[in-house]
Amino acid sequence: MSKPFEPEEAKIAEEKTKELINMLNRVLKKYVAELGPQRDHDIAFRCKSNPNIIIYVDVEAARGDRWREKIADRSGKYKTVRWPIAKKEKCEEKYIEKKLIAIMLTFNRDNVEEMVYIDCETWVREGQEETAPFVRTARRGYRYRKETPEKFWGIDKSRVIWGVQNLESFLDELLQRKGIKCL
């Protein structure tokens, strides 16, 4: 999980990620969600029938105002969902090169059932670089290092999957593409 600038925000994000895991374990039938070792991956989905089948998850906990204003907005003002460019590099080096199955997931801190997700391979292949001069955290603006724009990797909102109700079938489809099945 990307660490917010402020320790208080980081703590909230961590608690909300735990809440997300609890909700996922109530909803998912064939998979178990578990907290990852953070710098490696944030969450792992393990197949209940075969615990050796793992899908790695990189998580972003979006503040409710950011979720409503940028991610859930359907007006066309914000056309993409984006994650830091460092996560793209992580997907390429850690997951794609090693042929591991991984997804990117952002959820609304105010309602953990509101989420968007996409597999790393599609995100890397179809995404594009974007930049931003600053980021808002805890309602304050922060300029990135030395006032240079920060890079992100964004993908069209139509390419991400929305909502927890579609997650299990999405995970099954990802495994099926690799010739793997979770019973």
Structural notes for this entry:
This protein is α+β, with helices and mostly antiparallel strands. Helix content is 32%, strand content 34%. The chain has helices at residues 7-27, 64-71, 85-96, 120-126, 167-177; strands at residues 31-35, 43-47, 54-62, 80-84, 101-108, 111-119, 128-132, 134-137, 140-143, 150-156, 161-162. Strands 1-2-3-5-6-11 form a 6-stranded mixed β-sheet, sandwiched between helices. The model has no long low-confidence stretch (mean pLDDT 89).
> What's the helical proportion of residues?
25-40%
The total count of helices amounts to: 5
The total beta strand count reads 11
Radius of gyration: 16 Å
Q: How large is the share of residues in beta strands? A: 25-35%
